[in-house]
Amino acid sequence: MSEAGAVSEATRRRIGELRTAIALHDYRYHVLDDPEISDADYDLLMRELRTLEAGHPELITADSPTQRVGAAPLETFAVVEHQVPMLSLENAFSEDEVRSFERRVRERLGTPDEDIEYAAEPKLDGLAISITYRDGVLVRAATRGDGTRGEDVTANVRAIRAVPLRLRGQPPALLEVRGEVFMPLAGFARMNAAALERGEKTFVNPRNAAAGAVRQLDPRVSASRPLDVFLYGLGAVEGGVPPTRQSELLAQLRSYGLRTCPEAQVVRGVAGCLGYFARLGAARTRLPYQIDGVVYKVDRRDWQEQLGFVSRAPRWALAHKFPADEAETVIRAVEFQAGRTGAVTPVARLEPVFVGGVTVSNATLHNMDEVARKDVRVGDTVVVRRAGDVIPEVVRVVPGRRPAGAQPVQLPSHCPVCGSPVAREEGEAIARCTGGFRCTAQRREALKHLAGRRALDIDGLGDRIIDQLVEHDLVRTPAELYTLDVATLAKLDRMGEKSARNLVAAIDASRKTTLPRLLFALGIRDVGESTALALAQHFGDIEALMEADELQVRQVPDVGPVVAAHVVRYFADPANRELIAALRAHGVGWQPMAAPRAAEMPLGGLTFVLTGKLTHMTREAASEALLALGAKVAGSVSKKTNYVVAGEEAGSKLDKARSLGVPVIDEAALIAVLEKKERPGA
Ligand code: IVH
């Protein structure tokens, strides 16, 4: 720590250098799409800056890249008056409407025969945003609201990495830029998959997810959402040289380090517009974000001014929308599917309908709560929606078109796949099949999970093979994988003698595993890799865990009541106990972990933290080896840490260890500990 007021010139300079370097890398990554350094190196710069700032909090400025995420949740959003109103766009749904828009533009400008240039851009399906920079520093961000008054969402927008906190180049003294915040499809899919895994509600589409994230009162929650932004317009501006064209405006925004849509293009005349519309329509599914049409803007800004506005939309711009991704159709039947965790999901069989570019004949109804909420019945006329690659869904029932005598949908009492009873627990939206491995739907998913790389890691046991094994009833429980022989496997589709032999060898190799892997492989609800490791460390072996009650399981770090209940329920099920016994009987083996008698183990009572890159082994292998000797391996450094093992490029954990005075050893010392099975320095 430095003494107050004694910040050395070198530290001050280094902090400045780091901020400049990080801003440059942000710009290269987000705006130029041409990063110069790896994510790991970027993280190193951030860490160094964080460490320096932690030692000198008086040097922290609001535009430092470490200050993106504020801490305290807000009570409400403040209201922001837009100095220049945020307008909307006139929509067109057909070529004819585009042609008449374009004719009106030429007539009003008095250039009837000229091919006018248009800036054509995708119409992004997100949330309109206004971001204000004063002297190049981000001072405010606001939603559109009703166009005149929006909400102050500065804290949340600051957390979006693609939004610079300080502009580059020579921006005007006051610059309000406008554009769209959106959630890229990959981030949307990742977020929904994680929500599903946690049994939480998923978002219907990326637009809602983005809007929800921007309008979060807790900026930390919003910071965890994968948001992105494209800017395309101006609000209030003071100073600087105004651009003469929309295309020039976009280039100017880029020169300030702001992100613009790479698909934007200048086109000529109505033919150019329609050509652009066709190109984007075809490319639409390849874009990493969702768009719902294109926008044509007269490129010359003096002409824009001349054309002016009607009501709340400019005469110089038009949104040309893709065909609607909602359509009406009739529900022929409601059937139930059994999925991964036994979840029994209602699915609507539809009168086929063309929507969002494809013919849809099935749509999800999510769960029985949703069926009840929407009051969906067989024979109903409904609105279905298909957005991007999202599964089509029934949005709502069209009122007044229900056939007489239509009955509410009933949850089946038995699983449609295996006939086992279906149970729905109190407080849960999801009904589940109780058939366990007898249900082929659940068995298939259990096998896929068990064979996974982070579970028992059976190389070559892919989905296609698992499907066949289940279909032909060759494997009735996961343990029966270990009874498969070359002759049986070689008979499967697209399996030769050689690959069958390899697969048997891979299955054999998976017999030797570790307790955390085994616990993860069982697919207990809510037990991911880290919970599996924590359970293994705490209980030492599976027997102790199998006999534990909920209170005991809750003693495990990071295990709450819900997870504890799932764990206890899992081991209470005789079928699961049989599975574990059968796996053992087939030779699946693991070392107990030493937790209960830790004191007697060579490294009993010691807590290690691993950081940085190890060169002779992976971090996972190192922690497994340490655990096997009775040590605990923790994720973060505290006063209770006995040793920090620092590999190459170790970062903040190493700094923390030093500041707390925790002994640090290197990889060579770690290897010596593991080989000699002795405490460090013994
Ligand atoms: S220009 C006066 N350009 O569409 C100009 N808007 O329907 C108004 N939008 O509120 C906006 N992509 O949120 C413009 N490339 C784009 C756009 C775009 C999406 C949204 C924007 C606006 C809404 C109007």
How would you portray this structure in words?
Helices cover about 35% and strands about 20% of the residues. It has about 675 residues and is an alpha+beta fold. The strands form six sheets. Strands 14, 15, 16, 17, 18, 19 and 20 form a seven-stranded antiparallel beta sheet that branches. It has a five-stranded mixed beta sheet with strand order 2-13-10-3-9. A four-stranded antiparallel beta sheet has the order 5-4-7-8. Strand 14 (about 325-340) and strand 15 form a beta hairpin. The radius of gyration is 30 Å and the shape is globular. It binds 2-(butylsulfanyl)adenosine (IVH). 2-(butylsulfanyl)adenosine (IVH) binds near residues 88, 123, 232 and 233.
Task: Describe how the helices and strands are arranged.
Layout: H1 9-30, H2 39-55, E1 79-81, E2 91-92, H3 95-109, E3 117-124, E4 127-134, E5 137-143, E6 149-151, H4 154-158, E7 174-182, H5 185-197, H6 206-214, H7 219-223, E8 228-238, H8 246-255, E9 265-268, H9 269-283, E10 291-298, H10 301-307, E11 309-310, E12 313-314, E13 317-321, E14 326-338, E15 343-355, E16 358-364, H11 368-374, E17 381-385, E18 393-397, E19 422-424, E20 431-433, H12 440-451, H13 463-471, H14 486-490, H15 497-509, H16 515-521, H17 529-539, H18 542-547, H19 550-553, H20 561-572, H21 574-585, E21 607-611, H22 619-628, E22 632-634, E23 643-646, H23 652-660, E24 664-665, H24 667-676
Parallel strand pairs: 2-13, 21-22, 21-23, 23-24
Antiparallel strand pairs: 1-6, 3-9, 3-10, 4-5, 4-7, 7-8, 10-13, 11-12, 14-15, 14-17, 15-16, 15-20, 17-18, 19-20
Helix pairs in contact: 1-2, 3-9, 12-13, 16-17
The structure holds 2-(butylsulfanyl)adenosine.
